[in-house]
Amino acid sequence: xxxxxxxxxxxxxxxxxxxxxxxxxxxxxxxxxxxxxxxxxxxxxxxxxxxxxxxxxxxxxxxx
Length: 64
What we know:
Elements: H1 6-11, H2 16-62
């Protein structure tokens, strides 16, 4: 499409609500995905750290 001005571009030929709404929903989903992935990574690293700490304690207790 060829727009004559920024106003025409932002109006998207009368479909601005749908076009920009779709971009907004997609951006929101991507941001939510990043937040959830960071939380899951932090939780997984904590689990691994606790696992290794527990195993280190047990190996010291059973050592002669």
